Amino acid sequence: MGKVVMYSSVSVDGFVADEDDQPGPLFDWLTGGDVPLDESGALKVSQASYDHTRSYWDRIGVTVVGRHVFDMTDGWDGKPPGGIDHVVVVTHRPAPEGWDPEAPFHFVDGVEAAVAKAQELAGDRLVEVAAGDVGGQVLAAGLVDEVRMDVVPVVFGSGKRYFGSVDAQHLLEDPEVIQGDRVLHLSYRVRRRPDRTAVTPGVVAASEGHL
């Protein structure tokens, strides 16, 4: 099965939207370059961002989102965004009244079941999980293989957190870093088994002295 990737553009202080669900300048990097990112020509990025983003997009088979995002976008009018084959919606509610049953959207109760359905649909392609509350739940469940973020040089101060309500420690591997124009692309593999190497009290005390 394809790996599960948690992804979003994010502010330097870790928010994917403000308190009113507005992304502000988080997606400005997608229109600030001179290399077309897709056939529409509406998205233009730097060459570095193109090389990083286009190869990633081409590997995505299914996107997992929460019902809140689905409702905000009006379900993308039944057409998965970005040319994705399928969208899995994590929700306790059924599809909206009048929803086209032939649309490639799947309404699933619970993140574990949603990821399982997404991996079934994706085959060996990537499953992308939108960062935020649902992404944080998938990470907390130990189902995320990689954390990807496009860090934009803005500080929100408050808003919707990239990791949602995650309140436990999760170790990540060293990042892969790509510098774009007005964006820093970061990719971290999730460390499945925490490093159990003992840390001496002296090392802990020295570290805390710099906090």
Automatic annotation (TrEMBL):
GO terms for molecular function: 5-amino-6-(5-phosphoribosylamino)uracil reductase activity. Signal peptide: none annotated. InterPro entries: DHFR-like_dom_sf (IPR024072), RibDG_C (IPR002734). SUPFAM superfamilies: Dihydrofolate reductase-like. GO terms for biological process: riboflavin biosynthetic process. It holds the Pfam family RibD_C. Residues 87-177 form the Bacterial bifunctional deaminase-reductase C-terminal domain. This is Dihydrofolate reductase. It comes from Umezawaea tangerina.
